[in-house]
Amino acid sequence: MKNWARQYEIKTPITFVKEEEDIPKAIKAAISNGTRVRAMGSLYNFANVVEPMKSGKLFHKDHLLSLEKFNKVVSYDEETGYITCQAGMKLKDLNAQLELYGRLLPNYGNVDGQKLGGLISTGTHGRSLNQGSFSSSIKSLTLYDGNGNKHDLDFDSTDPATIELCDAVGLSVGMLGIISVITFKTVPLYYLRMINSPQQLDWVIENWQELNEKSDYVEISYFPILDMCIVGRSEKLILAEHENAHLDAPGPYKRNSERPHYLKVMLEAIVGLCLELRHIEMDICFDFEQGPEFLKRMRQYFKENPKRTVNPVVDIRCSKEERFLLSGAHKRRAFWADFLCIRYGSKKNSSYHQEIHNLFKDMKFKRHWGKHSCMTPEEVQEIYGENLEKFLAIKQELDPKGTFKNKYLENLLGNCCPNSKKLNPKMADDLPVKSSKALLADHDD
Ligand SMILES: Cc1cc2nc3c(=O)[nH]c(=O)nc-3n(C[C@H](O)[C@H](O)[C@H](O)COP(=O)(O)OP(=O)(O)OC[C@H]3O[C@@H](n4cnc5c(N)ncnc54)[C@H](O)[C@@H]3O)c2cc1C
Predict the structure, then answer these.
(1) What are the UniProt keywords, alphabetically (predicted)?
(2) Rounded to the nearest 5 degrees, what angle is found at the Cα of 256, between the Cα atoms of 252 and 258?
């Protein structure tokens, strides 16, 4: 089984979860056998943040838990609009179900094939300065940790210890345990009136603040080869207020745009082709105020490196500030710049992401945990600082035996945790720590 971009193959045996008890059972077995277990979603990630690191046990195997069959709505509360789902449910199935209830999640991304567990574990974001990531819509969830304990976490709790835990668990890349069910807060069903317009980059730079602050949802797609953007602005129309509006259908994935412009049609065809080509994405996150500086630098880069314009698009979207320790938008308004990299059979284009990384390094951007990244362990430590320390302290508490370890994440974060070797000498020893260079080359393997 391969990930969406076909960068790597999953080799760990997969066990299917059918009922909630299967999860603690699998974790307890792993703890007592000294093996590892992790959960997988739809493998829509661009870095192997999924597979458990090999424990090397002779008689017992490490396992991946697929929650694919653990995918039902558990309950829906009409009064509050809270919906509780099993973590293996796909986002598109949740949306379809919510539509029937006259509700939706407040934000939306580019695709909806992710499983809810994977969606929140990597901090999947949408396209609105007025909305946080999907994790921001969590009301509560159930997590099974590496001690075999169950945690029912209320994200609105005022208890300091629970707040700390939720700040970490809400975006935890599978490092703190396995999430079985999630309750989301929803909003009344809305339609989207989407207006796509071709714009010069200079216009976007000049109108950066107003454009993002005044529209409900914004996506800026920059096409390097043309030095042009398509700016997609969507306004939310609440069903009850627009009963007679001439719209296609409700729901965020059904759009009603203005008359097609030839450039729009052409550029959208490029995006469609690009999605088909199974590109690799590196999505980096900046402070919202850095937008104009970022855009000027990006344009200069493509001017000076015309061969890089083969990468068809850079997708720019904003996020509201949020609470999660590992989030790019932690306590700040932010924007994400997603650099789509076309893969060749050869490695011709493979240093593109590294060049982008170097170009913006001094602007201290953060990373998307489900996408490719060129950050070294030293950079992660510097950029996430105190937040990372807090997160790793919680990881140590919830997973003292390293049952949920993943090689990619350990290479990145393992050495950032000062106590990890002392507490787990055996587990830490089997980690062949990669050099930064090898870590960066991961997606070319
Ligand atoms: C075409 C495409 C478009 C995308 N568009 C966007 C976008 O618009 N915005 C954006 O932010 N991202 C986007 N992504 C990235 C994607 O949303 C994330 O990578 C997300 O993690 C994928 O969810 P998944 O179900 O595939 O999880 P997986 O990739 O399978 O897993 C991701 C992580 O979650 C962990 N995990 C999964 N389930 C559980 C669980 N039940 N308990 C604990 N841990 C768990 C896994 O161990 C792993 O660490 C896109 C990806 C693709 C391929």
Answers:
(1) Oxidoreductase
(2) 140
Predicted pLDDT of residue 94: 97
Domain 192-367 maps to which CATH number in 3.40.462.10, 2.60.120.1130, 1.10.10.10, 3.40.630.30?
3.40.462.10
pTM of the shown model = 0.90
Comparing 423 with 137, the larger pLDDT belongs to 137
pLDDT above 60 (res 425):
no
CA distances from 343 to 23, 273, 441 (A): 37, 13, 14
Question: Do the Cβ atoms of 45 and 3 come closer than 8 Å?
Answer: yes
Which residue among 37, 38, 62, 114 has the greatest number of ligand 1 atoms within 8 angstroms of its CB, and so is best to mutate?
114
What architecture is domain 73-188?
2-Layer Sandwich (3.30)
The per-residue pLDDT for 183 is: 98
Cα(363) to centroid(ligand 1), Å:
26
CA of 116, closest atom in ligand 1: 25
Say what the pLDDT of residue 229 is. Answer: 94
Give the start-to-end residue ranges of the domains of the chain: 14-66, 73-188, 192-367, 387-444
How far is it, in rounded angstroms, from Cα 357 to Cα 371? 13
